[in-house]
Amino acid sequence: MQKVFHKMSNSTRPQYGRVWMTFLQNSLIREMTFRGNLLITIVTRGFWFAAQLILFDIIYRNVNSINDWTRDDYFAFMATGMLINAIVETFFMPNCANFSELIRNGNLDFVLLKPIDTQFLVSFEKVNLAMLNQILLAGALLCYSLFKISDLELAMTVFQNLIQTGQWLSLFVICCQGTGQILMYCLLLAVGVVFFYSLMIALASSSIWFGRNQGLYDFWFYITVFARYPRSIYSGSPTGEVIRFAFSYVIPILLVVTVPARFLLSKALEPSWITFVAVFATLVLLVISRYIFTSSLNSYRSASS
Fold it and tell me: Domain range holding 228?
């Protein structure tokens, strides 16, 4: 690690990719050193994943749909939320949780001396490789849901007819639409990851002012639990409407999972411009979180001072 930073100090531009690869290598070595802990974490998360599937499978055995979400639709929504959370917990959660410890034991002093952006070092130092298992499980659930929803036999028939009749332009348009839908879904997934990261790093930065911020981390888990369910299920009661409005337009955690899931499933979004709200709110929160982080560093007093 020191060799990497020494070489960087002699260059005009930090080599962020090389530093991140070093972080990844260190994380892999650390996980391989404690293989038992890695295995237990993977098994535990696997049980949690299975429990979620069994729970909602039991629920949907008694009802055909909840609002406009069928069983397979909801599994696609669940997979979307799990993908976003798994990415956040793999790359960002352990680092943001460790930020207060850097302040307490004085190691933040050494981070500030590195010739690279401090927020980058704080955010990417550790990679929770055990959570990669959750990404694979969520991806498998998403593929299963899309397979159950789509009529592959009808789709293959349409493709064969277009090829046999030589309608290449129509075939090209259909392929472009499908590719565009997948790319847009991935982009919206990235928006969700950035939103949760921005919220997390903003809460972690408060450690400089409060010393320890366990209460704020509890707040994080309390509000993100609402994102586990589709936005539409909160309608129908005064309390639900308040929750729906607050977590759609004040802290839009309901949007960053619901919007990509509905887009992938070709479900209508109400209102239609709600996608722009999710993207705009994420960009604003990213800027605000950066400001909070830099402001907190300006208030930081060295452990030796």
Answer: 2-298
